[in-house]
Amino acid sequence: MAISVPSFAKINLGLRIGALRPDGFHELLTVYQTIALHDFVRVSVGRGAGIEIRCKDPRVPCDSSNTCYKVAERAVEALQVRGRVVIEIDKRLPVQGGLGGASGNAVAALMALERAVKKQLTGPERLRISAEVGSDLPLFLIGGTILGVGRGEQVYPLSDLPSTPCVVLLPETAVSTPKAFADWDQLTSSPSSDKMLKSSREISAWLAAAETSRGSGVSAKGGGRAESPLLDLVRTGIENDFEKVVFPKHPELREVKLVLERSGAQYASLSGSGSAVYGVFSSRENAARAAKNLTAHGARARVTATLTRRQYWNKLLAISS
Questions:
Q1: How distant, in Å, are the alpha carbons of 16, 269, 295 from that of 185?
Q2: Is pLDDT of 216 > 60?
Q3: Side-chain half-sphere of 197: how many Cα atoms within 13 Å?
Q4: Per-residue CA distances from 218 to 29, 149, 204, 223, 233 (Å)
Q5: Is residue 292 flagged as an active site residue?
Q6: Which of 39, 70, 136, 183 is catalytic?
Q7: d(Cα 90, Cα 66) in Å, to the nearest integer?
Q8: Segment (H or E) for 26
């Protein structure tokens, strides 16, 4: 039986880069948010043995270096799958775009494989396999609004932000994450522990304020009706540290962010290390208007929305073959 599932993207609502760790990774602090843009992944199990990756996009590797292959290899052993596993990727998200496309593909492949063979791994087993393969994978086993720490693989579900309209711009530029980290190390010669601690306190204060105002309809600042929790997070001063090293190398991406802000975005940011840049809007109409103007000037603009955890899982688990 073949199973087809959507493979959703993520954006980063702020991203702080900390010190280089002994294992070669950096300490990170970020709030992940799943969004409705997606690829499709189809998994089937037939006669034979081994794992086969199929994708028409030439930028996607179809060998053992593919993230889906690495996850499937571990899952096949854990689930004791007998047969040839074929994974087909319908690529709609950009490669090296900062939207977690490859990581989302791998988790979607894992979920589809379980359904195809009618076996399930435990939650901890899924998280273990995902974290072994890549830092961004575990977030896609939670969905919604997620706190990411460690190298990004330690994930904790947060109270969901309501579904919010946004526009994602997809430049042709490809940004290498390892190169962006290397540029960051050259830029910063001292540990970032103070900055990480400050950001941690800001996020903690935001979470506490959200809980205080929940159900009361009163802003934690005492200013009447509560505003968007996302805007409250924005006011903490969240920013993406990668912008400091990516924008100087790719000034066209800085311009994309400025265009989004001029188009009415309440908040705009690079996602991950880029190259995708997104803007959050107050309404679907405002987002659509901005996307139309941007598209008229040659930009690849997509209107979408953030996904709550329930929306994410309802769509991911919808039966499709």
A1: 13, 21, 36
A2: no
A3: 4
A4: 28, 30, 19, 7, 16
A5: no
A6: 136
A7: 14
A8: strand 26-46
The encoded tokens of residue 166 equal 């946004």
| Domains identified in the chain and CATH numbers | 3-160 (3.30.230.10), 165-305 (3.30.70.890)
Q: What is the pLDDT of residue 220?
A: 42
DSSP characters over 217-262: -B-TTSSSB---HHHHHHTTT--BTTHHHHHHH-HHHHHHHHHHHH
DSSP 139: G
- Tell how many helices (H) and how many strands (E) occur in the chain: 10, 10
Where does the pLDDT of residue 224 fall: very low under 50, low under 70, confident under 90, or very high at 90 and above? very low
Q: Determine the pLDDT at residue 219.
A: 44
CB 28 within 8 A of CB 15: yes
For the question of residue 10 being annotated catalytic, the response is: yes
Element (H, E) at 179: helix 177-187
Tokens of 63: 């060998």
| DSSP 3-state of 275 | coil
In DSSP notation, 89-137 reads: EE--SPTTSSS-HHHHHHHHHHHHHHHHHT----HHHHHHHHHHH-TTT
* Residues 142, 312: Cα–Cα separation, whole Å: 9
- List the structure tokens of 37: 């843009």
Question: What local confidence, expressed as pLDDT, does residue 222 receive?
Answer: 39
The model's pTM is 0.90
Q: Count of CB atoms within 10 A of residue 251's CB? A: 10
Angle (deg, nearest 10), helices 67-79 and 123-133: 140
- Dihedral through CA 183, CA 145, CA 87, CA 2, nearest 10? -170
